[in-house]
Every structure is written in structure tokens, then in C-alpha cells.
């Protein structure tokens, strides 16, 4: 068999975190290979090494049987690899034609000539693209932009095409059209890697499926010989017994109830779609979902950072809709969100631990001065309680290691004594020990009767740690399951949209029996 | 009547002859800004181009040498700016202002040193340099009534300035390197992902843009008769007007040409308001009542208004590069 | 293949950073010395004259100090004020314009103050200047907050508009124009009545103007404000990460407006103190502090104590150049500006050295290792005799 790409023993780490561990992967010429894996399983990192954005720490890459070294996007392009990034790399002010033109290597002419247009139009026609080359990118829809990105790599003569989650932003009809194009490209002899989470798409488009899990290569299977269930098992793996404590507490009435919540993202698209759920005191509710399914918008909406379109948010009988972040906190709802870059939200990287600890209550003390004496004492307490490793309370947060940064953030939220704690990705990028310390901290809160919403990435952890798990897909609720009565496969199927059990138990999931919201209120909104 | 025509002709002539340096400064700055950097060092870069170009031009008694040296000297200033802001990622505002402070001071430093030196400040009038920079009367065209003298009887550097603006417009809009350069000013990460060498493009365009500013400085030096007085810099704020003009021209070299004429119009009105009022007492008599300072400030006032209005409507400044003023560090992506 | 790539240092050391800066300063002086040498001037002598400002062996040394302080006061306050807005990442480069607004408004009071008590006049002058400059600053901040208008370019335009306003006042003879001397045919700025002239404490022959004390006290207050008050804390958070500030429930727009008012009002105050100390106004009254202040703030890395020290150094540089110009006609006070530019360039380089380091790429390391391996292999094939000689030479070198 002839291989377009062979990866042998590829490893890549970012600091202490290994993103890819000894990965072997092959792409047969003229096939469509689906690359499947959970969030953080290392798919995008692996593909970025093919597109020249990262360089592998070790291992070798073979293109068409020849060992190569890819140091830059230019090298990658010269080898005939084209990548369509999840976040488009387009110049908004330029037309489609101009965007394509600036990356063309094989055209000698210095002037912008029309013969280029003809070539592009021919390529577009060949693959059945319907695109206006003179349209400015800023006026294009998401699907048009994606078409442009694909046309771009085809025009550069790429024979190997990598698409990073191309369907995440498309409608069903647009996905059908995209798949038609991919099949056409395959006919023309292109080799394609498509990253996706959606199993039905994997089944319908791919010839083979390669699965990554936690940065490791698991297997490659022929699509025809497998099914969605088997793929899910490969993707999420067998349940790993983690020795995480899960104290069982007596649950109180619902502290926070969310009903029919609809929120838009920054692009104005619906990110959270009529979501229902509730959290009781002494309960930890996990939120599972593919990255970008609306977790961030959900957290921001509850914390008062994002306007909601529709729905109710009731905390202990009172609505918190429309309150400022400060007032939400005063109500007793605290939120800590660890963004991908860890420092972006909620922390001031150049300021000291003390200054970050007092961020939310600096204004409570009397007088014009910031009460740093108390702040330092609080910081010291947080440092001791959460075993934060730091030279002093005055060290800028930027200089701390990842785990300690996260402890500072979590410590500040817990310090304010909330009865609902929302925490998103609190162990993102942490090593095992730090992660366990964070779980302990959360459990301590739970024992105190705090209701916790835990937005996580690792299903094993959530199954071990959370009492119940809410699964969302594209912003919509797929069901709420009890951690003891579910399997990873079931959650996996729900995350990928293949299973919806909202109405399984004869009642709608996410609505408490003893809800303070009357039926009329719930419907009226 | 004859007198009226003369005043009119002179007015048109002066708009061009005294304000072409603005065009050089503006087109140079447009090139730099379009490639993604805001360089506030126009005044200083022009000053260095002026003094270096003039002194070498006088030494070798050749306009060509003067031009080459002023381009190179100002280009070196551009190299320093690129090194600091592109390679070392220093703040562009601070670096640009430093270049202005340094450049103007350098002008005085060298000027004073040469004036107090053994040979003294070189003479300009009567030299080859003077002759070469004198007006060329383009046969035929320069005798067109009314506009002939104003448009077609200038020194060669006037035409070079206009030519640069036209060529730059073509370069931006009709050539692939120009397109690539603009893509860097708009979205360096996208350009980088297509294999365009962002650093090299920024360096080259900052250096060439600075070189063009230097030529503008040289033109001012020649226009001032090349005399160094030690109290007033040849550039005299034109660099700052150029920065304003970039905004007014919406980052287009073609509109810079029109903007130069408009700003030049105000500038000339300031100098010639008395003559105009005298020539047309009934129509333009009121001109003498407007203080000349108002005309001086007008470019800045207009630009301020353009800035504010366009940000309110967020339409007008469609030419502004999106990534201007930001450093690009590949590993931040 | 790229051999090296740049990596941000996570933990730059204080002592190394300071050493790098001192190194940069020495290099700048060296470049200055080369320039001087090129003009046949003994750099040591010149620098000697410059840094002592002609103090040594001068009967009128106190005059020198008084002159130096007149340069120092506006520069210090302006630099401190600009640091406040830069801390918030607000690019207020309108120091010149704000200074002129303040100077004009203070002068309006001053010229009409005949007969008023000195203290009242000066307080009024300060208030007028602070208010007028502050309003300009707030207007610019409001446009920035509301429409995201580019503040760098707005403040830049302001500088030149104000420059022509003051020139207009200074060059227009008219009945309304009380700024000008009535007894002069040519337009010329008048001098303030005694009521508007800054007083001071007489120490022997030396007169310490109140302005100096005010400037130093003010710097201390701003230091405390930024470091210890809630408002200062907010400025730090907004400057560091405005997303975090919003998350913490801060009203970022209001903080920007308030801080810009403060920053511009301080520059207005600097102007009031300057015109009152000078006893007059002119179109060069700013002495370029709006520009120099930016360089000082940047050199001081926006830290108030550092800005204080650098203001002193730059004042000495400027005043020293003026003083030295009397003995060296070929070099005027522009040499100070020249040096400022060179110093900043070297400081930026030092800053870069302190914050970044070159790191070998993984591939380069690998290749180097491979080469080393090959060298070792080659060595092993060499005869034992050669090895012995190599060892012998090695011993020889270590003995030395």
C-alpha cells in the first residue's frame, strides 16, 4: 500500500504536559481518514506538526515514503500538505481572490493577473464550489469562508488535505455539501484527514478511522468493519478506576435552577440552547461535552458576564438574571473558569497573589486604601490551605506554575464562601498530584453543603468525582445521568449527539421535582 | 487682470512647490503603516534624510548623490526602527517618538558642527546641486495658460514625488508583493500561515518607506536654499502633518496626492492670504481677518474631526490596517 | 533550518536587569563620546562640564541648582502623570497639548490677578490649569471608551492644535489680548504681576521654590495612590487585563475616564507651576516635556520611584548640555535630545536582553549531538599515541 503520510514515534510536549506520546499514524493515498478523539487527546497538536506550526520533539515524518522535516508553514505547503484550520486564517479585508493569491507559490508573475483567476475558477468548478471570487471575506458566511479555505489549499496544489473540525460550524445541509466536495476530492486522488467528534459523520465520510486518547495512539480501524458503539469505546476507553473520593452527602433543596436558558456566543450564534438543570446543596454536577459546545457561554451567563437571550436563572428563589458579576457573587454564586491560556480570565498575571486574592472584595473595606494587611492574611491562608508553592504572597501570579495559578483562582472563589461554585476545567494542564489536590478542595466544599457545577474534560474523572453528569451537545441538553448508573460509552454517544435521553425517565431531565419555578413561569419564559 | 492671473498662477504653483514634501512623508508613512507598523518618527527620519542628503550632495555637488544618500540615511533610521520594533518587539509609539527626538537633534548637532567647522556650511546657490534641482520647464505643457506654470515647471523632485505616489498605488493594488505586504498589515498570522516571511516584509517596507521620507526631507532642504540657521529645522512640523495626512487619505497613496493638494491649499492660503485679498478685494477681502495660525492648525483640526467621525460611523477608515501597532510574535499564536 | 528561537524569560532577575541597564547607559555615553570626538572635542572634559553643570568653582552655583530645578519640576510631574495613563495602556501622547492648555488657563488668571493675594492667585491658577487640562483628557478618554477612537492619534493632533493656539495668542496684537505687553509695538508675551509669581523658601542665597516641594510631595502622593489605594489598584488591574477587571465587576469605562482626568490634570498642574515659576508664558514654555516625559516614563518602566530618579538624570543631561554649551559653541542643548534617543535605544535593547533569551531548537541540539558523536567516533579511531599527546596537552593547560 502506498502511504501519503506516515508518522513514526511522534512526541511533543508543552512544558511538563505531553500532548502527543509516541504516535504512529498512516494515511493511505486517496483515502479519507477520520481522526477521532476526545478534547485534549492531541489531534490538533499532531496535525499542527504536519502544517509546520509546531515541530515534533522526537519521531519522524514520511511524506510519500520520503523522510522530511517540516519547519515552517512554507515547508508544509511545498510538500503538498494543506491544512484548513478550525479558526480560519483569512484576511477579512481582502476578497476571496486576493486571499488565494497571496499564498500562491508557483505563479511567477509579479502582477495580479487574470490568468490566476481562470485557474482558480477551473479548480472551483472541478470540485463543484460555488464561490464569488470578488466577495470580501468580511461579508462571507462561515460556510463560505470554509469553502474559501478549502479552495485555497486546493489551488496551492495540496495533495494531502487536513481539515480540523470542519463541521463544527456548519448546518446539516452545509455538511452534506462539504462531504460531497470531500468525496469529489478523493476521486481526484487527494488524501484527506478529517478531525471530527461526530460519529455519524465519521461513519458516513471516512474509509478508516484513527483514534487518539490522552495523547496516545490507540488504533486505526476500517470504517466499514466497525460501528458507532465500538468507536466510542475506543475513543473513551475502558473505565479507569481512579481513586477519587466521592463523599455522599445529604442533598438539600435546589440552590440554583436554570430553566430554558438561551445564550448567544460572541459571533451572535446560539451557544446555549434552552438549557435546563439544577444544582442541590452537597451535590456535584458534572458538565460533559465536546469543547465549544457552549460550556464557556453557560458559565459566563450564570456569573453575570454574558447577556442571556431567554430563560430563568433562580438562585435560592431569587432571579439572578441581569445582575452584575458583583451582585451574582454577593448572592453566593462564584465562578472560576480556566481558559485555554490559563491566565486570560479572572486573574491579573502581573499582580501579586495578594492582589489577585482581593480582586473581588477589595472594595468592601472602608476608606480609600486597599486593605492589603487583610489581603495578605487571606492570601497566606489560601496558600497554606491549598498548599500553593510560592516564595511569598507578593509573587506575581505570572511566575507561578500552572497548578498553583489554578489554586489561586479556585482559592479566591472558595474564600468568598459561596453556596454555589461553578468551576470550569480546574485541572486543565495539571499533573496528577495537583489534580488530586484540586479534587480534595472541591470535595471539602461539597461536604460543607456547597452545590458545585464541574465543567470538565476527562470523563473518567467526572464519573468518579461527580454525583450526576449533565451532557450537552451544541448547546442543547442531551440528558442528565447518575454517575453510578451510566457508562462512558453512553456519555460519549450523548456528547457526539447520537443519543438523547432527556425524556428517558418519564420526566424531563434538568427540572427538579421540588422546583420553586411554577409550570407557568417555566413556560412563560 | 494680468495681475489676477499671476496671483492665481503663483498660488497654484506654491501649493505644489511647498507641499510636495508632505507627499513624500505621507506615502512613506503609508507604506510603513500598511505593513503593520505605526511609525511616529516621520519628522526625525525626514530631518536625518535632509541633512545627510544635503551635505553629501553639496560635497559631491550632485543631486543624484544627494538623493541616494538621503534615501540611505533615512533607510538606516528605518532599519533601527524595524530592529527595535520587529525583532526586539519594543513599543512602536515610544520608538517612533524617540526617532523624532533623536533625528531632529541629530540635524542640529551635525548642522552646528559643520557650521562651526573649518570650511563652514556649504554654499548652495550657484552650485551644480542647485542647478540640478531647479525647475525644469517642460516644453509645451508649461505654457498652458493658468495651470501650465503651476503644474509643469517644477524641479525634478516634485515629479519624482508624484511618480512615487502613483507607483506605490500600483504596487499596493496591482502587484502580488504589494498584496502580500497588505495582508501582513491586516492579519500577520494568516500571512505567516501561507508561508509569507512576515519579518522580512516588515523590515523591507519600513526601510523603503523611511527612505522615501528622507527624500522628502532633502526636498525641503533644497527648497529652503540649503541654508542652515540653527534655530529652525527644515522639516518644521511637516512630518507630523504627514502622519495626519495618512489618516485623512485613508491610507491610500492616490488620495495622499489629493490630500497633499488640500493641505497644501490651506498652507498656501496662510502664506498668501494677503496677496489674494489684495488681488480680489471684494471676494476674498475677508481672508486677512482669519489668523494665519488657523490655517496652520487646520490640517490637524480636520484630521481630528475625521478621526472622531470615522470612529463613530466605523466606516470611513476602511483603509486602516487592522493589525497596525501590534507586534507579531509567532509563538504567541 | 532555524538554529535558535526566542523564548520569553519567565523570571528575569532584578540585579541582572539593572546591570544590563547600566551597561546600556555606559554604551550610550560611549556613542556620545565618539560623536564628540569626531568634532574634535575631548569627551571627558565635555562630560565633566555637563554632569557638573558648571557647579564646581562657581560662585553662582545656587543659580545652577535653581535652573536645574526649573527643568526638573515640570518634567517630573509630566512623566509621573504620563506613567499613570500608560499603566492603564492608554497611549496619552498629548502631554504637550495638555500642558499648553493648562499654561494658557493658568495665565488667564495670572494676568488678571493684580492686587490679589499671592497664595490665592497661585491656587486659582493651579485649579484652572488642572480643570482645563483634565477636561481635555476626559473628552479624549470618553471618545476612546465610547467609539474606540485612536487615542494616540487624537492626542497627537491635540498637541499641534494647541501649539498654534498659543502662537496665535502670542502673535496677535488686539485689545482683548491681555497676554501681551501693552508697551511693546511688536507682539510679545507680558510678565505676570507679582501676585502670580511662585514664592519659595530662602536658604541663604538659594531660593527653593514651592513648586519643587509640591512636585516632590505630589510624586509621593501618586506613588501611594497607585500602590495603596483602591483606585490605584483598579488602574493596575485594568492595565494588566481589562477582561479580568470586567470579570471582577469593575466599571472599566469609568476607571479610564477618571484616570485620564487625573493624568491630564497633573500635566495641567505642571504647567501652572511652570508659568508661575517663570513669571511668564511662551510658545516654548513646555520645553518639550510632553515628549521627553514619554521617554522618561518608559525608561522608568512606569514605576514612580524609577521615574523620579530618571527625571533627575534627564534634567541634569538637559541642563548640563545648556550649561556646557557656553564653553562649546559647536554643541548646543540639542546634544541632550540626541543622547536621550541613544539612551532609549540602548535601554530597549537591555530590556529585551532581560526578558528574552535565545534557545537552541530541538533539531539544532540533535544535530550538534550527532556531530559530537561522530567526532568521538573519529577520535576513537585515532591511534593511542595521539590520544596520549592530547591528554598531555590537556594536563599542561590545566596546570597553567
Brief synopsis:
Chain B has helices at 2-34, 42-60, 63-87, 92-115, 128-133, 148-152, 156-174, 176-186, 188-193, 198-223, 238-248, 253-279, 281-284, 292-313. Chain B is mainly α and 333 residues long. Chain C has two domains: 64-329, Orthogonal Bundle (ABC transporter involved in vitamin B12 uptake, BtuC), CATH 1.10.3470; 361-399.
What is the helix tally of chain C? 15
For the biggest β-sheet of chain C, the strand order reads 1-4
The chain pair forming the largest interface, with residue counts per chain, is: B-C, 50 and 51 residues
Q: Classify the secondary structure makeup of chain A into a structural class.
A: alpha/beta
CATH architecture grouping of the largest domain in chain A: 3-Layer(aba) Sandwich
Name the CATH superfamily classification of the largest domain in chain A.
Answer: P-loop containing nucleotide triphosphate hydrolases
List the helices and strands of chain C in order.
Answer: EHHHHHHEEHHHHHHHEHH
Q: What integer is the average pLDDT of chain C?
A: 87
Number of domains of chain A: 3
Biggest sheet of chain C, open or closed, and with what strands and sense?
2 strands, antiparallel
The total of beta strands of chain C comes to 4
The major pleated sheet of chain A works out as: 6 strands, mixed
And the CATH topology of the largest domain in chain A?
Answer: Rossmann fold
- The N- to C-terminal Cα distance of chain A equals 60 Å
CATH architecture of the largest domain in chain C: Orthogonal Bundle
Rg of chain A, nearest Å: 25 Å
Q: What multimeric state do the chains show?
A: heterotrimer
Mean pLDDT of chain A: 85
Strand content of chain C: under 5%
Structural class determined from secondary elements of chain C: mainly alpha
Q: How would you describe this structure to a colleague?
A:
The complex is a heterotrimer of chains A (525), B (333) and C (400). Chain A is 31% helix and 24% strand. Chain A is an alpha/beta fold and 525 residues long. In chain A, the strands form 4 sheets. A 6-stranded mixed β-sheet of chain A has the order 6-7-8-3-9-10, with helices on both faces. In chain A, strand 7, helix 6 and strand 8 form a beta-alpha-beta unit. The longest helix of chain A is centred in the middle third of the chain and has 16 residues, at 172-187. Chain A is globular and about 70 Å long. With 333 residues, chain B is mostly helical. Chain B has a single domain, classed as ABC transporter involved in vitamin B12 uptake, BtuC, CATH 1.10.3470. The longest helix of chain B is centred in the N-terminal third of the chain and has 33 residues, at 2-34. In chain C, strand 2 (200-203) and strand 3 (206-209) form a beta hairpin. Chain C has 2 domains: 64-329, ABC transporter involved in vitamin B12 uptake, BtuC; 361-399. By secondary structure, chain C is mainly alpha-helical. The chains are: A alpha/beta (525), B mainly alpha (333), C mainly alpha (400). At the B-C interface, helix 4, helix 11 and helix 14 of B face strand 1, helix 6, helix 11 and helix 13 of C.
